[in-house]
Write a structure and sequence with these properties.
By secondary structure, this protein is α/β, with parallel strands linked by helices. It is built from three helices and six strands, in the order H-E-E-E-H-E-H-E-E. The chain has a six-stranded mixed beta sheet, sandwiched between helices. InterPro entries: Restrct_endonuc-II-like (IPR011335).
Amino acid sequence: ELGKQIGGLGDKFGYFTEGLALPSMERILAERFGMTASLPRARIRKNGEEIEIDVLAYANDDINLAILVEVKSRVKREAIEQLQKLMGRFREFCPEHRDKAAMGILAGVDWDQDVADEARKAGFLTASIRDEMFEITAPDGFEARRW
């Protein structure tokens, strides 16, 4: 029973963190990347399986890009693997976006040591909260991998 309560509290804190991230992340996605659609907590089901994307943003036409954002209150190394897996399954679950390039952003409040660097080495943009707003934290000239 206590385990369920603790797990439920963790879920609620995760939703709180996602809600905190959403306004600034939507601004970044629109202004920096030209995203025209932004879907928070996108749940996609296919063949009895489900994936959840904290923020799915995309733009068609000349931009032709989808961005998947994973938001964590505490970012550990496992979050990189989780986002890699999500990127790998994205087109399977969202075939309507199969012709778009896809990028991933790992966003977090509290980062374990060296995890942001490892995420960028894996090709992901990183975002951290500063002054109650998320900002992209990649160095100048960093190019996110496009899947």
